[in-house]
Amino acid sequence: MLLKITNLRVYFKSADGFVKAADGVDLELYPGEILGLVGETGSGKTVLGLAITRLLPKTAAVSGEVLYRGQNLLALPEEEMRKVRGRQVSMIFQNPLSSLNPALSIGEQIAEVLREHQGLKRKAAWQRAGELLELTGIPAKWIRSYPHELSGGMRQRAMIAIGLACAPSLLIADEPTRGLDVTIQVQIVELLHAVTKGVSPPRSMLLITHDLGVAAALTDRLAVMYAGKIVEYGRTGEVFRNPRHPYTRALLDSHPSNGLIATKGFSPSLINLPPGCSFHPRCKKARKKCAHEPPLVQRIGMDHGVRCFYA
Amino acid sequence: MRRLLIQRLVSAVFVMLIASFLSFLLLFYAPGNPAETIIRQQSGLDPTYAEIELFMKRHDLNRPFLVQCLQWLYLLTHGKLGVSLRTGEPVLEEFTARFGATFQLAVAAMALSVIIGLPIGVFAATKPNSLFDHIIRVVSLAGVSIPEFWLGLMLMLCFSLALGWLPCFGHGTVRHLVLPMITLAVGITASLMRFVRTSMLEVLNLDYIKTAKAKGLREVVIVWKHALKNALIPVVTILGTQVGHLLAGAVIVETVFSWPGIGKFFVDSIYARDYPVIQGFVLIIAAIYVLVNLLVDILYVYLDPRVRYEGRS
Ligand SMILES: Nc1ncnc2c1ncn2[C@@H]1O[C@H](COP(=O)(O)OP(=O)(O)OP(=O)(O)O)[C@@H](O)[C@H]1O
Ligand SMILES: [Mg+2]
């Protein structure tokens, strides 16, 4: 097992109480596997990614365990954690325009990672940066260009090149196709496939996405998140064919363009979560029990689990 | 880039002319008469009515305001700034003879401000609301509000009169430079610190800083390379406008410390109503101001690739 998250909680202190952005998340990621994380906006997907890499602001209270190759990242001293970031675990953020430094050339933004983690000298690092650009589909002669000189798709490729620089074993990609034209989205999906499944040994990826099409195309397994909890997980094909949680069903029936708001009603406030099952106020199948007792995850098959009493 | 230069030069000419015109206008209608003051200075006696008349006539001072303006403009188109009423020397020579001392003082003060204000501003921003940050906030508030003449006198009192470490006034050695430099630098350092802090705080919250952290870069690299390079862009613009404060401060500091620069001579000329000197100096200082801001614009283009790009296309 490459990554094993157990009972992860991320609470933000706010004036009205705690925002429970992640509330007891369990997840597993095997070597060479692509795990999709889907859920409507505000369900805590980005927070989960940031918790793994420990990039959350200091206002976040994090508890639980994030085992990476058996080592609990949450307990690592900051300096050790710094060496994990970018070298073992890379994160690719959404919106590459704001995520790339406008004052540095893309070559420099790639080369500096290599200098930091692999101790490459200036020239060797730039040489390698050029190769990485070519690898992600950017002509190496653009190495000196600045982010604003590139198109949205090219910027996302540059972000991926940065993430891949030190050949990490885990890539966390947060909505890498968001805001791109459909044709460009397809190219980025192909690129992500090439740099994970296409290398040997295959690289693992946690893919956070709104786009069920992208999830279906890329992922081996799928985890569905609702209000800070994983409500269903399983093999991607299995979940698509046989969704068992009412929320997952609604999600699959919904149209991806509306921010993955699956069903009518608002997503619950993460400060005052409804008692019992967080989804019950919006659930068509809710019964009395759902309003009182929080459901636990039930295993309903080989590697398929659902957080629902009546699945 | 070329268009920027031309725009700047055209506006520079206007700024310079308007500045000297306004200074002349103000002094012309202010009470006081150059003839009286200057003759008294030169002979030590109260001048007679006839002497004043003669002086005014010789220097065309009894002509109407607009005529005098046009005369001055006419001279200017021939590259002349006229002669000082007090010393009889050409204004340009009076300026160049003294500018070196002022330049030395201004550059030293600016350098000191950057060396001290920049790192402190950066440190304060990396630990917002820490004890250090609070102390810095109070210190910088004090720094911008202390009047230069008072600070100068206090420093003099403390370090030259009481302790005897440094000379009170004069010019020539590095030791002479210390107190005037500090006096002039305090206000600029204080505002620079605040600008850097604000700008850094803003930048440190942006997405690309999170990216830099996710890349596993060291804190120093994130702060001093990724954040500072962006935070400096607005700061550089501010520094350009600080040159105005710098020159105004120099006038006061030079007077307090008897520093033989243009500031002191300029103040003396105002007391004497030495019109050609005042107009000429204002013109040159305005030119310097514009020039420095042009340099700042060029530096800005160097710092911000986005502007560079627009300039190229
Ligand atoms: N720094 C923070 N301080 C307080 N609350 C936060 C902070 N960051 C995130 N949150 C809250 O945590 C919850 C989960 O946010 P998160 O960004 O993880 O959602 P998401 O699933 O990624 O949504 P989206 O699909 O829109 O990206 C939200 O309610 C958000 O308001
Ligand atoms: Mg998100």
Overview of the structural elements:
The complex is a heterodimer of chains A (311) and B (313). The radius of gyration of chain A is 20 Å and the shape is globular. The mean pLDDT of chain A is 92. Chain A is 31% helix and 24% strand. In chain A, the strands form 2 sheets. Chain A has an 8-stranded mixed sheet, sandwiched between helices. In chain A, a hairpin with a 2-residue loop joins strand 9 (221-226) and strand 10. Chain A is α/β, with parallel strands linked by helices and 311 residues long. Helices cover 81% and strands 0% of the residues of chain B. Chain B has helices at 2-29, 34-43, 49-58, 65-77, 91-126, 131-145, 148-162, 174-204, 207-214, 219-257, 262-272, 275-303, 305-312. Chain B has a domain at 99-303: MetI-like (MetI-like fold). Chain B is an all-alpha fold and 313 residues long. Chain B is built from 13 helices and no strands. Chains A and B meet through helix 2 and helix 4 of A and helix 9, helix 10 and helix 13 of B. Residues 45-46, 174 of chain A line the site of magnesium ion. The site of magnesium ion has 3 residues of chain A, from helix 1. Chain B: This is Nickel import system permease protein NikB. Chain B: The chain crosses the membrane at residues 9-30, 103-126, 138-165, 177-196, 231-257, 277-303.
Could you write a compact summary of the structure shown?
Chain A: Its EC number is 7.2.2.11. Chain A has 311 residues and is α/β, with parallel strands linked by helices. Helices cover 31% and strands 24% of the residues of chain A.
- The radius of gyration computed from the alpha-carbon positions of chain A, rounded to a whole number of angstroms, is 20 Å
What fraction of residues of chain B sit in β-strands? Answer: under 5%
Uncertain runs of chain B are: none
State the share of residues found in helices of chain B, binned by percent: over 70%
Report the sheet with the most strands of chain B, covering strand number, pairing sense and barrel closure.
none
Poorly predicted sequence stretches spanning 5 or more consecutive residues of chain A: none
Q: Kindly report the spatial arrangement of strands forming the biggest sheet of chain A.
A: 6-7-8-3-9-10-12-11
Give helix and strand order of chain B, one letter per element, not per position.
HHHHHHHHHHHHH
Membrane topology (chain A): Peripheral membrane protein
GO cellular component, one term (chain A): plasma membrane
Subunit structure (chain A): The complex is composed of two ATP-binding proteins (NikD and NikE), two transmembrane proteins (NikB and NikC) and a solute-binding protein (NikA).
GO molecular function (chain A): ABC-type nickel transporter activity; ATP binding; ATP hydrolysis activity
